[in-house]
Design a protein that fits this description.
heterodimer; A: 121 residues; alpha+beta; three-stranded antiparallel beta sheet; 4 helices; rod-shaped; B: 169 residues; mainly alpha
């Protein structure tokens, strides 16, 4: 099946002898150094991402950041026409939420405050 | 046949085929070496395949296809990231011999299946049976493709000569 066209083709595409020798040597090496697979960095990246997500999900966050934590920090009750606001969190009743309408002054913390609806300051 | 003899015989054929297939000397070396390494590995583990040439060319064909596709897909990304395309640029193309450049250009104009058949049989020097085996077609179908490809290639190369390209050879 050999023709003149094939001969011309082969001559045009003839590789350099040193290139031929290089690939022969490379192929016959007892242990050819395998190229690092591109899957390895991809898998490592995916694992790192998964670890970050897991860390973010499992890290305990302050109660105020979640909807659940916000619930029940202040209780508001209506007792006989008087609205009572009580702070639930913290030790010994926690900080005051409302102090007689004046910042920094008022009665010492006791864990509850009475708000009189419609009263004068 | 000894392994080393087979590798030495197949190396230039595989390299020529790979140059014709990829149009890039560095990529061709990678393809040819991968194919030979696969043959060596197969030979050492399980003995020689029925037809070492068909085995190596089948590997080279798959590898070249994958690398070319990869190149085409990554080309825009490379161009975007560092302004460098993995495809041969004008400078690299200019360093290819004029004759090789013309032959590759003419090969590119052939229908893909005909080109593949011609590269395996005409350039890689596979026999019709081995060539047909690599391509998964019958021997008459392979012969038909090779015949068509030769005729068309001859026309293309002659047209270029008539256009005045040939006087620089």
């Amino acid at each position: 099946m050999d023709t003149r066209t094939d001969q011309r083709l082969r001559e045009a595409l003839e590789p350099r002898p040193e290139a031929v020798e290089r690939i022969v040597r490379g192929a016959l090496e007892p242990r050819r150094t395998a190229r690092p697979s591109r899957l390895v960095p991809a898998a490592a990246g995916a694992a790192a991402l998964a670890a970050l997500v897991a860390l973010w999900v499992l890290t305990p966050r302050p109660a105020g950041m979640t909807g659940k934590g916000r619930e029940g920090r202040v209780s508001i009750e209506n007792v006989g026409g008087v609205m009572i606001v009580r702070h639930r969190g913290g030790e010994e009743g926690g900080r005051w939420v409302i102090r007689n309408g004046e910042r920094g002054t008022g009665s010492p913390p006791s864990g509850s405050v009475i708000v009189i609806h419609g009263g004068k300051r | 046949m000894e392994l080393e003899t087979a590798v030495r015989e197949l190396a230039p054929q595989l390299l020529r085929y790979s140059i014709g297939r990829t149009g890039d000397a560095a990529l061709a070396e990678e393809v040819a070496q991968d194919a030979l390494a696969a043959l060596v590995q197969r030979w050492r583990r399980h003995g020689p395949p029925d037809c070492p040439a068909a085995f190596a060319f089948a590997v080279a064909r798959r590898r070249a296809g994958r690398l070319m596709l990869q190149r085409r897909l990554l080309e825009p990304l490379h161009a975007l990231l560092d302004g460098h395309s993995p495809l041969p640029g004008p400078d690299e193309r200019a360093t290819l011999s004029i004759r090789l450049g013309r032959t590759l250009a003419a090969l590119r104009k052939l229908p893909r299946q005909d080109r593949e058949a011609l590269l395996l049989v005409g350039v890689g020097e596979l026999g019709p049976t081995e060539g047909a085996r690599v391509l998964g077609i019958t021997v008459p179908a392979l012969k038909m493709r090779v015949h068509r490809a030769r005729r068309r290639l001859r026309q293309l190369l002659e047209e270029r000569l008539e256009d005045g390209d040939g006087h620089q050879d």
